[in-house]
Amino acid sequence: MGLPPINCVIVDDDNLDSAVIRENISAFPAFRLAGLYSNPIESLEILRTGKIDLLFLDVQMPAINGVDFLKALPDPPLCIFITQYPEYAIGAFEAQAIDYLLKPVRPERFRQAAIRAMDYFDIRKKALEYSLRFEYDFLLVKEGMNTTKVLVDDIRYIEALANYTRIVTADRKLITLSNLKHFMEQLPAEKFVRVHRSYAVALDKVKTLLPNELVVEGVRIPIGKLYRQAAIQQFQTKSFNDKKTR
To answer: In this predicted model, what pLDDT tens digit does every residue of 53-83 receive, in sequence order?
Structure first.
């Protein structure tokens, strides 16, 4: 069986931008537009029903900042922010947004975000079929009747998705019900570092370290404010140790 329809809501005070998002949504049969609002306050009634799966939310609006609005929701749906201001990206990801699109939204960029959202809902549907066991240098991930062995050294990064966690290697993505905190308690501290409330990375897989994000094998991962100092210290320690062993 496929996924049930993904009920979407658009909240954007610019009618033209809303129309662009609506047109992009219509290209994906899995999405069903359930509401379109120019004011976040007007969307509260439908969001409180708990029947909305995905929220396309502008950031700069007259009534309330979109990031603050999402944080204020007691049980927010999955969110994709849409804005012309890149400086809000860190706050958006700290609010657990699944993606952040810059206006004007290009169809190929929207497609990336849509696939990411559909992957999330597919993961949530399957998550109860997964279990995890830690061993010394590998993980055993059970998917239904099948068990997959994942070497710790092959892990690139780990991503928290609500109550689920995605393990990403070079050639696979596996899901478990274990949360990110549990992973960090089990994985070797000298090999992995938590860089965000939603991400932990393998130190030896980091290619580029920037002030607010890092790059792991071509994937850009945000660095959260609460984790920045400890993460940078751990990267510096690893670099120093690597030089000593050469």
So the answer is: 999 999 998 878 999 999 888 888 999 999 9
Contact call for residues 90 and 140 (beta carbons, < 8 A): no
Ordered structural domains, the chain, with CATH = 6-125 (3.40.50.2300), 135-244 (2.40.50.1020)
List the beta bridge partners of residue 199.
Answer: 159, 196
Task: Break the chain down into helix, strand, coil percent, rounded to 5.
Answer: 35, 35, 30
Which pLDDT tens digit goes with each residue over 165-176? 889 998 888 888
Residue 57 has phi, psi (to 5 degrees) of -125, 125
Residue pair 64/18 in contact by the 8 Å Cβ criterion: no
